[in-house]
Amino acid sequence: MKVGITGGIGCGKSTVALALERRGFRRLDSDRIVRDEVLAEPAVIAALRTRFGEAVLENDARAGADAGGGSAGPRVNRPALAARVFADDAERQWLEDLIHPRVFAAWSVAFAGEPGVRWAVEVPLLFEKGLENWFDFTVCVACSPDLQLARLEQRGLPRPLAGQRISKQLPLARKIELSDFVLWNEGSPAFLEAQADRLANALVVA
Question: For 143-160, what is the mean pLDDT?
Answer without folding.
Answer: 90
